[in-house]
Specification:
mainly alpha, 3 helices, rod-shaped
Length: about 160
């Protein structure tokens, strides 16, 4: 017997822990410091990877939005310069554009870091089965294992 293969998950985080929902619809909150089976470790790692992936996508959206707003600032600066309205307004638009450029750079950096976290979570999920699957199968398949323990190990 092997643990069920990982399936797509959704995950959210709050002050109570990480809430993971499997594709099968089962939901569980991991608060830390608890005993987990191999399948639960895999679920938690996959849920964390999914959370990283959605956060990474949000960062890219923020980069795109910042770049677009910075381009809008360039357009405003050109219009203001054309109408010769005021240097103070141009300076404020320049400052805003600089801040948007900094925001885009920070969001890109965060995106890259989160992608690294996602890779770590996916690797941990894959390695959990490879490194500990033998022990898992020995307990789950053993005729000496009590039914309650077998159910604990096989529960998803």
């Amino acid at each position: 017997m092997q643990p069920n293969p990982p399936v797509p998950h959704t995950a959210t985080v709050d002050d109570k822990g990480v809430h993971v929902t499997t594709a099968g619809g089962k939901s569980r909150t991991y608060s830390g410091g608890e005993v987990m089976t191999l399948t639960q470790v895999i679920d938690l790692a996959e849920g964390a990877a999914t959370l990283c992936q959605s956060s990474s996508e949000k960062c890219l959206e923020l980069v795109d939005e910042s770049v677009q707003l910075a381009a809008d600032c360039d357009g405003l600066i050109a219009e203001i310069t054309e109408k010769d309205v005021g240097a103070n307004l141009i300076a404020k638009c320049d400052f805003l554009k600089e801040q948007l450029d900094l925001q885009a750079a920070a969001a890109k950096k965060l995106h890259d870091q989160i992608q690294g976290g996602e890779e770590v979570c996916r690797t941990a999920s894959a390695n959990a089965e490879v490194r500990h699957g033998g022990i898992f199968r020995a307990v789950a398949d053993s005729p000496l294992t009590k039914p309650a323990e077998r159910d604990f190990y096989n529960a998803r």
